[in-house]
Amino acid sequence: TALLHVENLTASVEEKTILHQVNLDVPAGETHVLMGPNGAGKSTLGHLVMGDPVYTVNDGRIFFDGEDVTDLTTDKRSRAGLFLSFQAPVEIPGVPLSSFLRASIAGRPGLEMKGKEFRRRVKELAAELDMDTAYLNRELGVGFSGGEKKKVEMLQLLLLQPKLAILDETDSGLDVDALSVVSRGMDAYRKSCNGSMLIITHNTRILEHLSVDRVHVMVKGHVVRTDDASLIPWIDENGFESFEREAANAA
Ligand code: ADP
Ligand code: MG
Ligand code: MG
Predict the structure, then answer these.
(1) How remote is the CA of residue 180 from the centroid of ligand 1, in Å?
(2) Structurally, how many domains does the chain consist of?
(3) pTM
């Protein structure tokens, strides 16, 4: 079976059903994109896969790497190899970025490193992301720009080397600097980890340099279409209106 296998997932928040019988597979080593209009439930799916307790699973299961993870805590899922980029990266006054990064790999078999090795590795990755190493000593998130927060996120991704990275690029829009950081991070992740990606995005520019295996379209909490990468330029040109009409007719 696929690395990520979402089966018939119906889920709600505050009594309101957001996802309806969602089926979605991401096989190992593949890059998938999840697209859809604002409010469709894309971020909700990401949070559910990661185990955000805000959301309730009403029906269906989530399998990862052959294991039913539906009832696991976020920490256990993370240790199993799942990663979700945080939409609003944390600010922790008083904690330097390097300590935060160090803590995120602590106790992880195969990832733990000696201090010297850790510093060397982080410097290497920072260079790859074109990140000023002075940031490593700054307080986490405090006064970071959007692009800088993205760099932190990508650094964490490259350190953790998850089997599946769910990258939610949010609706807020990233500036050119942040976009290039994300592209570079995705590139490095694919090269160094050969991991799978599920990219949630409105911005198809970020996909230009990627080879995308499958595209899923979500409308009103339903996955209404799964197709190959040719769907991306089609959506660029036509938007989601035809999918929304179909969904309205089906309802
Ligand atoms: P997308 O990422 O596709 O724009 P979201 O998953 O953010 O969509 O939201 C889908 C729907 O679920 C929206 O109507 C949104 O208001 C609602 N929703 C998502 N998260 C929450 C939450 N924590 N509390 C209340 N409503 C939520
Ligand atoms: Mg949204
Ligand atoms: Mg969203």
Answers:
(1) 27
(2) 1
(3) 0.93
